Amino acid sequence: MSDWRSYDNIAERYDLVWSARFEAVARHMSSFVPPGSDDRVLDIGTGTGIVLKVLAERPTRAALMVGCDRSAGMLARARTGAGKRLPPVQMVAAEATALPFAEQSFDLVTASFVLSHVPGYPTALAEISRILKASGRIAVSSWAPPSDPYNAAWDEYLAGIIDPVEARRAVAQVIPWEEHFSQEGALQSALRRAGFAATAAATIDVDCDSTVDEFVEDRQLSSGGRWARHELGEEPWTRVRAALGERLRARFGPCLRYHRRAFIVTARKT
After folding, report:
1. Which residue from 93, 101, 183, 236 has the highest number of Cβ atoms inside 10 Å of its Cβ?
2. C-alpha distance from residue 73 to each of 7, 151, 167, 214 (Å)
3. What's phi and psi for 65, nearest 5 deg?
């Protein structure tokens, strides 16, 4: 049986469901830390390479771009360019807490929506500091808590089927620091404790408009949705998913218009 926590299982659907919102954040991030033509860039938790794609579209392209991720399935998508969207880049399978690179070997490190996934995120930040050159730059991002009525309704409906306490415990296996880094200022504090000096911070609202069916697919791919699917089994989950979709459609109509807030912080190694 496949591990519900693994991103390998959702690599093929990841871009279709989530790439637009992650690209929107990556474009803001890249405007704060545009790479220079001689820069060596590392994207940690690169997934399907969304941040690298955006950086490659900048007027000045870095001399070297590397993506690393623990998920072989996500790296496979990134290597094929997810539909030929990426220029040639190097892809490396690695943990954020044990980066296989020499000291002071990169000018810029990005980690978009990554720190919340890393149980030992202080170790990951120490590793980033180790591989950054003197005065090297780092850019990170995280989501604020969802504030729309649709996510609240989804959680409310699902709580009647799946024990919410068990659900939170399960989700913490995938994103143990999600709640922590969803608080404004948490990224800055983590970077400061790791010895970085913040250079910019921004809060942006990302449009997430969708149909009910698209929203249900989004929630199914989330860590909570994957766990619920795993717990219930395929046939019961198919029925639950259809029922949840109908309840959302009856309550809100066929189209959902909302946004999700994201935090972006950039800093320099000191």
Report:
1. 101
2. 7, 27, 25, 22
3. -125, 130
How many CB atoms are closer than 10 A to CB 163? 11
Q: Which two tokens mark 193? A: 């404790």
pTM, rounded to two decimals: 0.95
Q: Please count the other Cβ atoms lying within 10 Å of the Cβ belonging to residue 27.
A: 15
Provide φ and ψ at 81, rounded to 5°: 75, 15
d(Cα 69, Cα 175) in Å, to the nearest integer? 15
The alpha carbons of the chain give a radius of gyration, in whole angstroms, of: 19
Q: Which two tokens stand for residue 8?
A: 């390998």
Strand 106-112 to strand 40-44: parallel, antiparallel, or no bridges (unpaired)? parallel
Helix H or strand E segment including 132? strand 132-143
pLDDT digits (tens, 9 = 90+) for 144-178: 999 999 999 999 999 999 999 999 999 999 999 99
Q: What's residue 237's pLDDT?
A: 97
**Quick one: DSSP state of residue 7?**
G
Cα–Cα dist 183/179, whole Å: 7
